[in-house]
Amino acid sequence: MNPLSPGLSEASADHSHLHGSAAQATVHAEQSRLLHGNAPIGAAVSIINGFIAAGVLWYALPRSLMVTWLVINTTVALARLPMGWKYRYASLTDSTGRRWRSGYVLGAVLGGASWGALAAMAAHYSSLPYQLFVAFVVGTMAIGAIAVNASFLPAYVAFLLPALLPLAGGLFFQAEAMPVAMGALTLVFTAALYFLGRNVNGSITRAIERSLEQQALANTLHAEHRQTVEINQRLAQEAESHRRALADLRDTHQELERKVMERTGELVYANDRLWQEIHERRNVEARLRKGGTLFQATFEQAAVGIGHVGTQGQWLQVNQKLCDILGYAREELLRLDFQRITYADDLPASVEYFQRALAGAIDTYSIEKRYLRKDGAVVWACLTVSMVRSAQGEPRNFIAIVQDISDRKRAEELLFQEKERAEITLHCIADGVITTSAAGTVEYLNPVAEELTGWTTETARGQALEAIFRVVDEQTRAPVANPVHDCLKERRITGLAEGSLLIGRSGKEYAIEDSAAPIRTRDGAIIGAVLVFHDVTQTRRAKHQLVHEATHDALTGLVNRAEFERRLEHARASAKAHGSHHSLCYLDLDNFKAVNDSVGHGAGDMLLKDVTALMMSKIRSRDTLARLGGDEFSLLMENCPLDHALRIAEGLVGAIKDFRFVWEESRFAIGVSIGLVPITADSQSTAHLLTQADIACYTAKDLGRGRVHIYHPRGGEGLKRHWEFSRIAHLRQALQRDQLLLYQQPIVALAAAESGPVLRELLLRLVDAEDHLLLPKAFIPIAERYGLMASIDRWVIGNAFRYWGEQLAAYPHLGITINLSASSLSDESMPAFVRTQFAESALLPSQVCFEITETSAVRNLKRAVRFMRDLKSNGCAFALDQFGNGPSSFYHLKKLPVDYLKIRGRLVRDMATDPVSRSIVEAINDVGHALGMQTIAESVETDEVLKELKKLGVDYAQGVALGGPSAPQDSPWKVIH
Length: 977
Hints:
The protein is an alpha+beta fold. Helix content is 56%, strand content 18%.
């Protein structure tokens, strides 16, 4: 608030960003406001002093002159009063401000001239004592004008000179020495008053300019604070995203580890089988060399492919296994040579070995190569070839043993791919990974582990894990047991305790979480361990902060509602189990809204902090004070009987009553109303206790505020209030748990060629504690009384946008209508909330029509129009509901930018039998069409009414004749004709 006046803060807020002439205009505006604000005081003083002077000079001056002067002086003074009154309601600009100041200066000239005329008459007609009296009165008026006119120097000079210069002149023209001396003294006095007024004017101007600068600085600080809050919220969201990403990465790592182990086991098994088959093949060869018969039997029954190859590469003899491997019949294979069935890329190497054996360079060779089966498939084989020579050493033929190794090759390829993926993953994941031997010495660190520990794989390899991975407890700083040691000892996955810190080689500390798992062979033998850990420093810091924020109010630092209810439930349980006596208070500040509305929310926040500090000083250290929201608090006094709790509560009432909140130059007196409830073994539930305390608090307010009221369950008004609080508590619970229901009712186009949207109105329902379905009239009035309508509207909009955004994504021509309360129309943040819901859903603004009642719109017409135009700029439509209450409806209709006009159901129901109702409906329809609106008839219950509506050209109809309210289906509706 500006130190000079209540109105300066608005001027500062509007002009704090201007410089030069604009800032000067703002200063002049404040000077004008001070002049006209003080005008009544100056006029009153002028009139009073005029009558006093007239009474003293009544016999010293001619009475006709005295009466004439008195009438002129009073008229001039009274003329300034309406000028000050009109100024309060004037819409000022820079040019009109100058005219107001000029008018004021003219009034000051006339007022000064009036008093100067009195001085001149006294100098001419009266004796020296009367002249001294007049000089004293006029000088007093000149001094007093400093307080009234010095905020604008021209106005002060305009009064000073006409008032004092005639006095000095009248004294100078007398021949006596005393009047001449008094005239000279008057001139000196005039000059002194001018300089004094000039200094006062400068001080006032500087004070105004300084106030403007302070207001601009306050606005800047407020904007920076809001930006800081937004940044903190984004950081919290990013921390949560990081936590989820780390969890997903750990799951991926575990799945990858499992797959690597499975592939490794398959490869080991394939190798074992291969070596076993090779061993068997060698045994077969040995037996073949020992005897022909044995060789022939082995040749045919061998588990590997065997063939004799001539010196030209042709197949001379083959066994059945080789035929099976290559996919040829025996006769077909004997007509081929090995070159024709060898894979093209492997043929050069195969021919080279064949030629070297023919040349005698080698007698045997073994290679892996690919064959082409008859069906075109590729077969990997391990080929072992031995040269058979004659006694003279001449080549006779080759013995070729072919082993199908396709399965092993596929396993090797898969293992290679898994190995590559594992190595890339270990290098890319955000977790640190350390592998150790079975003895616990380090074998490998991935890049993240190297960065966090400060060790490289080369320097750490072979060292004990304790030297590389130094971990202490976050609180005690005691060393933490080595997780790998426990893992190898217990032969299971282990992890660090929560709150562990890793100390890097450089001394830098990291909050970490980890797990260690044993590395096993296929037979279960442990050959080492793998340690996976990740840096959770930021997450842990954010977690501590979030825990505090989740249980405390950000503004006052008190516990919030959730934490308070937890403590209250603990107290209730102790009362029931041990017979303890506790007390609960519900506190609601009085006159808090006046502070918020008059000096702003910043002052309101400071008031809440000051009141919190005051209440904390008046309660016991073990008591729990919580802020439930707004200006509502709760106090839990454990182990405190009702009489002692009453004394504490009354002390709070007295302390807050005596407290004065000072904001700049404004002082505010506030109070508090307290509802007190004892907590005993018979207390039913936490919600019931809070409801009782709330009822008692409202009773204290009804009884005159600023008092303590103890809850007593009674009949009559108390029982009604208890029922209302039970219903509102159930409604609040339904909002929190999404237990409200949204029904739908069709709005049907009556013209067959209608191309507009097909609409459904969303209707709210509530299921009570006995599972009864309640219509709006059973709970909406209560919600309006207790200020819940804005929250209900937000719930409806949020849920409707989410559900219908999915259902209508492929049907842009379909739409929904949503009812809005008067509370939402007055909520400045509601348009921004609606735009946010559009951004988070697939629903288009053109698919949404908001319905407002005529009475809620007229209640605050300017704000309603501004609200509607704001959302219409985004593409939304508006319907005026329940239209037709009276002639005033048409007057307001042309001011409201609505798209649809819903004709009141009471008129529609009777129009088939009542000519007056039909005429009113026809008039409303014609006026709506003339204003470019489409009309909707409500409460259409019969076919006769429907026919009449079509005759009148009404655009849409709604009612049980076309479909009653029903739960929404999972598919878009059909067009109803």
